[in-house]
Amino acid sequence: xxxxxxxxxxxxxxxxxxxxxxxxxxxxxxxxxxxxxxxxxxxxxxxxxxxxxxxxxxxxxxxxxxxxxxxxxxxxxxxxxxxxxxxxxxxxxxxxxxxxxxxxxxx
Length: 107
Ligand SMILES: [Fe+2]
Prior knowledge:
By secondary structure, the chain is mainly β. It contains no helices and ten strands. The mean pLDDT is 94.
């Protein structure tokens, strides 16, 4: 089983640290009215956008990634290493988390 776990670093739901085991991910979603900033701390994630063939590799050596409100994306760690990323949202995130969003490639 591939797991994704997160720590909420601020009380206002604006800052999260997320650990992505190999094979884990988060299916297509958006962030409501919030702009997202993602910075990779370790490892690498693959990002895809709904209705778009582009694929982005989120890597530690790159600058933080900004995703405007309304972007519908998904993030997957195809491995081989665990990835850790920092996510900041402005205004603070209002979306509610759903277990249905979890990707587990090991299943
Ligand atoms: Fe997202």
